[in-house]
Design a protein that fits this description.
CATH topology of the largest domain: Rossmann fold
Order of helices and strands: HHHHHEHHEHEHEEHEEHHEHEHEEHEE
Number of strands: 13
Number of helices: 15
CATH superfamily of the largest domain: Response regulator
Distance between the termini: 78 Å
Largest sheet: 6 strands, parallel
CATH class of the largest domain: Alpha Beta
Helix content: 40-55%
């Protein structure tokens, strides 16, 4: 915009003069707060309309408040991958809607090197950490040095920040109990990543000891509550392709050595396991039972998946309320949501006896 255009732009002082009120009264009329009568507010808004004045400059408002009006959200891995995960999309939707209700914006960052670097300098009033990020500890330390309000979604207690969680362990335990009631004993688990390395393979004790991804740890514990010795395959993250790779690892063996049921730690992983079974000619659920976790609709999955539904949007909204409360100087309490078991059409009684 050229200098002449900027000079001709109406100001709040112009509006106040036309409405016959002080500039402070005009400002209160726009904010919707303070002791301003309805008649005065209407007069100010009418003057603004006549002058084509859109309202106070939000940048100036932010400077006066000492805030940016922006809340950061840190996700694990590449942001484009996050938008392929319906759970992440629903969580971000809930977060964005809650922030939008108070006029705040949302800045998406990832936990890669460039994203962490931006966390040290980006103008933000607070940060919400999505718990599947394996670098939560490092991120919290950085933000704490900045004096930044922080809320986590499915973070661990050691972070010492307000957290929003779900009953991962209880939900997975219910799935495992369902499989046990059907007669399954040879059960395997396809797990989420356990840390930032995103390595794949049979879960090793040292990997488990260093695991930082809370949903992985808690859902593993729920499965072990029922099947203490189950084999666990770690994936590089929650995606259909990662589930397919893990499915081939477990299923592309002699029939006698295959599990009769697989507990996947997400619905996307479960869909990938089912795809692997189809590629190997294994029928679900007649020859293999498969369960998931999340309760989402997976594109291309023509099964009513046995799974655990979690309130992803509500998690995001709760985190939004908590971070707003912290920015305003409050001290929000941790919040945890229940989950709901859904018996679909991907589980049935095993067709062979358990291995000795």
């Amino acid at each position: 915009m050229d200098p002449e255009s900027r000079a001709s732009r109406p100001t709040l002082a112009d509006v106040a003069e036309r409405a016959g009120v002080s500039q402070s009264t005009a400002s209160l009329a726009f904010s919707g707060s303070g002791p301003v009568s309805d008649a005065t507010r209407e007069r100010v808004l009418q003057a603004a309309a006549e002058l084509d004045y859109a309202g106070p400059d939000p940048r100036a408002q932010s400077l006066r408040r000492g805030r940016s009006g922006i809340v950061g959200a840190v996700v694990g891995g590449r942001i484009r991958d996050s938008f392929r995960d319906p759970v992440m999309v629903q969580t971000l939707d809930g977060l964005a809607e809650e922030l939008g209700a108070v006029g705040a914006g949302l800045l998406l960052l990832n936990d890669a090197e460039d994203g962490v670097a931006r966390l040290g300098t980006a103008p933000m009033d607070g940060v919400v950490l999505i718990g599947c990020s394996p670098l939560l500890d490092d991120t919290v330390r950085l933000l704490t040095r900045r004096g930044m309000p922080v809320v986590s979604i499915e973070g661990h207690e050691g972070l010492k920040v307000p957290d929003v969680g779900v009953d991962n362990r209880g939900g997975t335990r219910e799935v495992a109990e369902h499989l046990a009631s059907l007669g399954h004993r040879d059960v395997a688990l396809v797990a989420l990543q356990f840390d930032e390395s995103r390595v794949r393979g049979v879960l090793r004790p040292e990997w488990e000891a260093s695991a930082t991804v809370v949903p992985m740890v808690e859902r593993l514990a729920g499965a072990r509550d029922v099947f203490p010795q189950l084999v666990s395959i770690v994936t590089g993250g929650s995606s259909l392709e990662e589930g397919r790779i893990a499915g081939h690892t477990l299923l592309d063996v002699d029939a006698a050595d295959r599990p009769t049921a697989i507990i996947a730690q997400s619905d996307l992983l479960a869909a990938g396991v089912i795809r692997a079974a189809e590629e190997l000619g294994i029928t679900v659920p007649a020859e293999l039972s498969v369960t998931g976790f999340d309760g989402i609709r997976v594109e291309g999955l023509d099964y009513d998946l046995t799974t655990v539904w979690q309130p992803s949007r509500e998690k995001g909204a709760a985190a939004g309320r908590a971070i707003v409360e912290m920015i305003e100087g409050g001290d929000p309490v941790p919040e945890s949501f229940g989950v709901r078991f859904h018996r679909g059409a991907t589980t049935a009684a095993p067709v062979r006896e358990a291995r000795a």
